[in-house]
Amino acid sequence: MMLRTQVAASxxxxxxxxxxxxIASQAPPVPSSPAVVATVPVGSAPTLxxxxxxxxxxxxxxxxxxxxxxxxxxxxxxxxxxNPNSTGIAVSPDGSKVYVTSLFSINMSVLDTATNTLAxxxxxxxxxxxxxxxxxxxxxxxxxxxxxxxxxxxxxxVSLPSGQGTTxxxxxxxxxxxxxxxxxxxxIAGCKPICTPGFIQMLDTAAQRFTREFQVxxxxxxxxxxxxxxxxxxxxxxxxxxxxxxxxxxxxxATVSVPVQPTGLAVSPDSRTVYVVSQTGGTLTVIDAATNQxxxxxxxxLARDVVVTPDGRRVYVSSExxxxxxxxxxx
Length: 331
Fold this sequence. Notes:
mainly beta; 4-stranded antiparallel sheet; about 50% strand; disordered N terminus
């Protein structure tokens, strides 16, 4: 248990604290590339991203603030206070709500997107260690949130909007979750005591039962499913790799090297392109899903998270103080 705690702390705490004091006052330069459409100033790093189902807004959860970015103008439409040290963000399938978790709080912030105002927070049930709630996946009907909780080595199954629910105990310490479009299966990316290799564990949502697990790269920090349902991808934090998973066989079919500390992952709507950002490496890597080869890369200092709009035309990458807007066709 001590080794597990030390491994988690050594990797996660620097990610949460990057940009919170001790950073040079001069902002890093905007990447020089014809792909750059705009840069949008937001709050203090780390900044986590999600995009509305209709593509009209990108939501950026920084440390202590939540910004709604209008994708038509690439300007901030609203900025609201949230708890510091954001650890997860998700938008409801109908686009009406944005949920933000934070490291030390049991209150999940809720944004009403129709008015860009904060709704009453949802109090999550208290764990053995307070807080620890992180990345989440929402059921297709928006009624259930599956939220990782590293501090308590659990997966919270939360009814929305009540916040009531239960905690399931997977065999891995969960870092991130993804859910299939039909809502039947949740994939949990996480670690056992040493994180080499990492693991994916599958949850049957109807039975609330873990069904099987398989190995991926070292310390899987993020997981995304391709929209076509054929593949999943994990960004492996300490392995500096992306694992490509065949969802029919539930096995890794390829491993792609990326720059150091990949912290953000997105798949294009047509499932043809995978976008990976590496925080320490300061890079956006564009992977061709057909060949599992890096097609291009772009330096973005302290790149943390990445999302792609539903039409596939724009890619948004969070950096130290900005969200960089990119033309996908130019990457």
